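Student: Please help interpret what follows.
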Amino acid sequence: MVLDWAVTLKRGTKPLFVHDGDTWSLYGHLHERTEDRGPGTKIGDMTARCTAVLVHARGHVRQCERVLRTDTGHLSLTDAWTWRGPARTGHPAP
């Protein structure tokens, strides 16, 4: 079975400048994807709690616990990944 869902974020507390140990929450609506890969019918919601575990000038590594909830059940996920982007980490640009 392949789950092909999309999340539209509604609220979040992620800081503009991320530092080691910062924690934030996210909330969004969970949707089935349409044929053009966009969000379709709303099927539930998503919450996440993330922590920055390593911050450097080019981004940060975050660890998140996410819960995807639908009428038929829920799915809990834990992940860690590297966010690369503009130097919005409290460090000067590289």
